[in-house]
From TrEMBL:
Pfam families per the UniProt record, alphabetical: MarR (PF01047)
Segments forming domain HTH marR-type: 1-146
GO molecular function list: DNA binding; DNA-binding transcription factor activity
UniProt source species: Achromobacter agilis
Record-linked SUPFAM superfamilies: Winged helix' DNA-binding domain
UniProt KW Transcription keyword: yes
PANTHER family for the chain: TRANSCRIPTIONAL REGULATOR SLYA (PTHR33164:SF64), TRANSCRIPTIONAL REGULATOR, MARR FAMILY (PTHR33164)
Keyword set, alphabetical order: DNA-binding, Transcription, Transcription regulation
Protein's recorded name: Multiple antibiotic resistance protein MarR
GO biological process, one term: response to stress
Amino acid sequence: MSTIPPSGQRRLADMPMYRLYQAWSQSNPVFLRLCEGRFGITRREWRILACAVEGGIMSSAELAAAAKLDLPRTSRTLGALCEKGWLRRLHDSADRRVVRVQATAEGLARYQGLLPEVSRLNDLLVQDLSSAEVALLRDFLSRIEQRGRRMAEDNIVEEKASRREGGTRRARYA
């Protein structure tokens, strides 16, 4: 049974976050098959590897910030990439607690093999747009990302999600 929202109220399909998610989810399977099927790397591993190659030697925290991931996910992914031999941990000679991360020659080769394919898929994704529209899209996405970051920093929704309680906090309505 479908119902129509009251006049003037937006529908889910009109909301930018939903549309961005839909655009991502429609193209995501293609990227997944490319990364995991052809190159044996998860999307998260690809992101960490690309950030490590493009950013040079950096700490785990710097790598997490560059990849826009939390430290535990970055640490797990970093461990997997080290096991595959694509990244290596470098210990500081003055302070053994300080660990830096660097791409190996094999990791660089994996990056260089995958990057042109990822670029090609991204080009295909926007092929129906003019170069001016692609530039506008990049600008719009940058502005949306900045606004989203400010919204998070401003803590505009104070409630915290509880992953231990089934993925979300259960709201109780009176």
